[in-house]
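Record Beta-xylosidase, 442 aa.
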Amino acid sequence: MGSTPGRSRRWRWLSLFGATALAVTVGGALAGPASAADTNVDFATHCIPPAIAGLPPIDGTTTANVSVDNTSPKVGDTVTVTYTVVTAAASNPTDLALPADIMTPTGKVTLGGAQTGDVTVAGPKKNPPVPGKAAFPSFSMTGTFTVTKAGQITLSPGDYNIHTSYIMELDTPCTVTNPPAPVSGTITATDGTPANTRAISLSAASGDPGASVTVSGTDFTPGAAVTLAGRAGDTQTADTATVTADSQGSFSGSLVVNDKTTTGIVAYEGGSWNADKGAGPAAYVVNDNTPIPDGSQKLTTTVKAGTLSMSQAGDSVALSTVDFGQGGASTGTLQTVTVKDFRGGPAGWSLTGKVTDFTGPGAKIDAGRLSWTPACVTTAGSPSTCKAGSAGTVGTSGATLASAPDATLTGGEFTVDAGLSLDVPAFTPPGSYSGVLTLTLT
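=>
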């Protein structure tokens, strides 16, 4: 298989990472990594080096694990999945050393049991330098899925691809030889609010006033009357039409759009918009083709969508010292995290964290003993309002630090903080202990 330069650009980044080392002293010192890894599994893998390397396919073994931010979700919940390749089957195919931060991994996680399917995952463009012919370093990829069925859901690592951007764009795709790979993690989902899986798509994203756009929908109630409507921000316009879903819950209908303030189109069951029985808004723009009067000039500008990002004020926290024989709360404050959502559109965001066990001189402090009290402040003028996560245990399974909900228009800048407290057992051996708190923004 040859290189595919455009492949990495087709993947949509789902998350950004931040890691903070935590440190405290017991009768001297204590410090903290965060892995949410479940069981490491080995599976046979078939990798194809870039054609330019002139190398034959590689049949080797991949060691990987899959973890989640919530092992006991309810139906309707969104679960964040992290796929970590501990040891890749492939290696740097050339004698040329690769510099840092040129690798972008992508892949999929296979669901089984009560819910089946694949979860697309992607990782950041981040890696240490890789010497010529050396093994690729460990890397992690994340993605999300919505729980639709109650019961036990298994997670297995799937195919992955290593894209490198150095001198030229190259791919090393690796597939599971005997799919599915062994199960690495399991979650148990319970009944909850049924997930709304209704979805719509448009035949065009823009049109002149009076133009007709075809709206197609899936997963609506079979036989239901569905209203198609234009939206100007949060307000429904006068442009509406009605269609009937078929026996499969699908439909295709036309909507004539006249209102020049239209920003999107929705479809819903019932007499008025209901997010639980509707889909959208799908973005739509009405072209302003109003004739320009003599002696006038038409001025236009464009607002360009940005990205969802986060930054940290630092990457280490020194927790307070505790005494041997007494133990107790070792406290500190999370380095301030700034979230910037400049995407525009309806999507909200979630910032979660998980922590590893704190390891020290021949002993460890369980990750479940770290708790936090989150706080979140929204910068004035932001369309969204952030919500701090609940105070409580962080642990290896993770918890929500802050979030902002979906809405017709989202965005803004947010400052996130948290008080940290590690409950140190009384007779923990003196010494320095460390763990890493990893934050994931999706």
